[in-house]
Write a structure and sequence with these properties.
The protein is an alpha/beta fold. It has seven helices and eight strands; from the N terminus they run αβαβαβαββαβαβαβ. It has an eight-stranded mixed β-sheet, with helices on both faces. The longest helix is centred in the middle third of the chain and has 13 residues. Catalyzes the formation of N(7)-methylguanine at position 46 (m7G46) in tRNA.
Amino acid sequence: MRLRKKHFAIPEMKENPYVYFETQGLKDLWQEIFGNNNPIRIELGGGKGQFISILSQKNPNYNYVTFDRETNAFIYAGRKIEALENKNVRAVAIDIEQVGECFKENTIDKIYINFCNPWPKERHKKRRLTHPRFLKEYKKFLKIGGTIELKVDDRDLFLESIKYFEENGFEPVEKTLDMKMEDYPDNIVTEYESKWRKMNKPICFGIFKRIK
């Protein structure tokens, strides 16, 4: 369901010191922005920010950057980030296609993609965040040996994504079509995941390592 447009979202986010709308110069500024040289991990499609807020608090020795262009939801991520006591996370409100402009080569060791749009129609599949054209962009900054963690509710998207990864220089480290909570005690349950689990819908999960 499409969120009702929130006219206050962009003005409020532009006043938030933890949110960025431009990519220019970011790749050279992360150490200055975070005030340290800790490793950076990124989330693509941050939504309302529940996942990245919890993750960043659990792992204070990593820096995190979350991306989303849908400000109607991302406004809430910005609020959560600003409220955190641990300031190791930032938000960038841009189209994911621009993410390659934000980081230098071989600087990111992990990418998280949670419940992205499955774009089931054939003519729309190139919009998937796991599509080869996006994987090409990620490889501009993802280290060799770095991983992409994918969690979705759409089985067809997951199975086709496995092929995308394997055909574009990634190998599966782990993959399951039914992610059991008891098998993943450190799993952070997102808003969408909570919804699907209440409906007893299987969650697909995989970790894919860049090998070349």
